[in-house]
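Dear colleague,

Thank you for sharing your sequence with our group. We've completed the structure prediction you requested, and as agreed, I am returning the results in plain text so they can be pasted directly into your records. Please verify that the sequence below matches your submission; if there's any discrepancy, let me know and we will rerun it promptly.
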Amino acid sequence: MSRPNLCVVIVNYRTGKCVLDCLRSLATECRATGTRAIVVDNASPDDSAAVIEAAIAREGWADFAELQRSPKNGGFAWGNNFAVRPLLRRADTPKYFLLLNPDTVVEPRALSALVEFMDAHPKAGIGGSQIFEADGSPWSLAFRFPSAITELDSGFRLGVITRLLKNRVLSRTMGDVPERVDWVSGASFIVRREVFEWVGLMDERYFLYFEEVDFCFAAQRAGWECWYIPGSRVMHIAGAATGVTARTDKPRRVPAYWFESRQRYYTKNYGTVHAAAADLAYIVGHASWRVRRRLQNKPDTDPESFLQDFVKHSVLRPKARRR
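Please find the predicted structure tokens below.
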């Protein structure tokens, strides 16, 4: 039995219209390459599952796409694992899995560029596409693993600190050639089958956010490389699914699960002491930024009550640690 090259997994939660746009952009290349697309509906309370199912039938997409209904909204990792887990048990398991956000539109050959790069680099276990905003502007970023050092820079937002830590800051602005990185955006995230077999599936104890960082961290420890692959171009409407990362002047209040995922990442991978140091570095830096912003009369672009919520969920507080 021949092994298919790629399976695309899209997790939907109340993003039916976005999923239709995503499937429409996938149709030509999926058919040309024999790629399957699985949409997992995470028990959406609206009619988006029915909308997607009807569109697959109406548009004739059933030759490459299918809808699977999850019994609960277990989060991003849960939804992806719901589709990936049974496929890993099959003799014809795909060589690669592309975890694709529902609020994306892929450009022509975006899938082929990922597969061709991974085929040419057998040590590459994970790869990420070049992301574009809805208006066409590039969001050409990849990342270093979060640590107490990156939190210091993120909190202070001070040019002199960023320059001193230029090789340690979280975000990396990428160019037009592939580069090895620590982790890439989960908006378009290809994973080699063997990574799932060696490392395991994504950690479902993350509801949303940090699960891709954690997965890349585990893959790197197992000897796999992560690459930024700019030849694959994907448009991402940031925050369309959650509102948390929307590019607005004043983002909405950050939900508790973001802080809980962040705490889990640090305590799981670095231990409680490093997690406390990371929290302290960010709190001190961000408090300093809040004061400086007022003195300099700069606009307040932070989410509502962000510092208070950060402290509330910090590992420095025993109650938050127990939770």
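Summary note from our side: The longest strand covers residues 225-236.

Kind regards,
the structure core
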